[in-house]
Amino acid sequence: YHLGRGHVSASVDQKLYHLLDQRAIT
What is the pLDDT of residue 17? Predict the structure, then answer.
């Protein structure tokens, strides 16, 4: 398990989720 990769993956997932939320609200 690489903390760096895990952090990056989590960050990307957060961004994607945020974009999906915005699109859903809009």
Answer: 86
The structural domain count of the chain equals: 1
- Identify the residue whose tokens are 């903390």: 3
| Residues 18, 6: Cα–Cα separation, whole Å | 18
- CA–CA distance, 6 with 22 (Å, rounded to integer): 24
The CB density around residue 10, as the number of other CB atoms within 10 Å, is: 10
pLDDT over 90, % of the chain? 0
